[in-house]
Write a structure and sequence with these properties.
With 384 residues, this protein is α/β, with parallel strands linked by helices. The chain has 10 helices and 18 strands. Helix content is 28%, strand content 28%. Helix 1 packs parallel to helix 6 and helix 2 packs across helix 9.
Length: 384
């Protein structure tokens, strides 16, 4: 199907969780004309390749605020979308394996309490009560927040698409943006592989590909794509509820509703770039680290192993801001592997910006110019 000269109030590029949440909130708030463009199939990008974790336990006010307010929305979202998103609040258990790491987690908990998050510090023995398969050897302490959660990325994407279309919006897959027609400092047309569309406002929600879109507009976004690998095992009987993560070891793993273990580990030697091929490094290091933490999983079979991308900023915090080059473009990117979990609140903020409303929270900490001005404090709570 070719498209030509259709005009929309808003064109959102990227039908991952950020793009679809933005369209959903835009329509929910009274917006009328929105289309979301996806270059591949629904779920082909980072959202469809992520682990589905959702947490409030962060080490910076910027990420804590987004996460907390997102969980507020997540708790209501299954009812709003009238679908089972497999949203379950089983908590996050974060492990410290050194005194230095333990001190950082204590500081994070102290900061989280200032924002009303009920995270707590646990002894290794208390952590094992929550995750019985845990090997406590080497663990100095753990932190836990029972409000942290998980959800199905695929169920969420398809439920959002369905609701957006019911509300009068459009989601067009297999439609790649290949350029823009710019007049003065405004985008007048978005050029795709299936024709051109006219827009009043444009949102760049393309994740790892956001820098490419930025370059098409003459803007250099401080975002780089990094390959991250993930796997899933055979189904097991129920063993534990929380997502288990270690920042120092770069690993995360959880048990899904049907019993499979899903998890990943970051390669500290990974270079930026669009490398999609899975590596032999991953299964060895993931299995070795997983068995150290949970020896009971030693003989579990890994069924599938795949890759996705984190779009990483220098401080591992997102960009939610108007373009510095084009007046009618908003960038929502740089989530550094955590876009899915904060997408409900990000979508709400961007929708408010599109409608000319004051954002529900101060968006200055997410500005693009913070990098140019040297206001960079790196997030400590990042896995991999």
């Amino acid at each position: 199907m070719l498209i030509s000269n259709e005009k929309y109030d808003v064109i959102i590029i990227g039908a991952g969780s950020i793009g679809l949440m933005t369209a959903y909130h835009f329509l929910k708030m009274g917006g009328k004309s929105v289309i979301v463009l996806e270059k591949g199939y629904l779920g082909c990008g980072s959202t469809g390749r992520c682990g589905g974790g959702i947490r409030e336990q962060w080490g910076s006010p910027e990420n804590i605020i987004l996460a907390k307010k997102s969980i507020d929305i997540w708790e209501k979202l299954p009812k709003e979308l009238e679908d089972d998103l497999e949203f379950h609040q089983g908590g996050y258990l974060i492990l410290a394996f050194s005194e230095e790491e333990a001190e950082t987690l204590k500081q994070n908990v102290h900061l989280q309490h200032k924002f009303g998050i009920n995270s707590k510090i646990l002894t290794p023995e208390e952590a094992k009560e929550i995750v019985p398969i845990l090997n406590t050897s080497g663990i100095v302490l753990a932190t836990y927040n029972k409000r942290d959660a998980k959800a199905s990325p695929f169920r969420t994407l398809f439920a959002l698409k369905k609701k957006i279309e019911e509300m009068g919006g459009k989601v067009l897959t297999h439609t790649e943006v290949i350029g823009f027609k710019v007049k003065g400092k405004e985008v007048k047309e978005v050029i795709t592989t299936r024709g051109s569309l006219k827009a009043n406002l444009v949102v760049n929600a393309t994740g790892a590909w956001s820098k490419i879109i930025g370059k098409m507009l003459g803007e250099n976004l401080p975002v780089e794509p990094y390959r991250h690998e993930i796997m899933v095992t055979e189904r097991l009987s129920h063993l534990f509820d929380p997502m288990v993560i270690s920042f120092s070891k770069g690993i995360y793993f959880q048990q899904m509703p049907r019993g499979e273990i899903i998890g990943g580990i970051g390669n500290p030697e990974e270079k930026p770039g669009f490398f999609i091929q899975p590596t032999s490094w991953f299964p060895y290091h993931f299995a070795k680290t997983l068995i150290e933490i949970a020896p009971a999983l030693r003989h579990v079979r890994m069924l599938r192993h795949w890759t996705g991308y984190y779009e990483v900023t220098p401080d591992a915090k997102p960009i939610i801001d108007y373009s510095e080059v084009i007046n009618n473009v908003i960038h929502a990117t740089g989530f550094s592997g955590h876009g899915f979990m904060v997408s409900p609140m990000v979508g709400k903020i961007v929708a408010e910006m599109l409608l000319g409303k004051s954002p529900s929270i101060d968006i200055e900490p997410y500005s693009i110019r913070r990098f140019r001005e040297g206001r960079i404090v790196r997030e400590t709570g990042v896995v991999g």
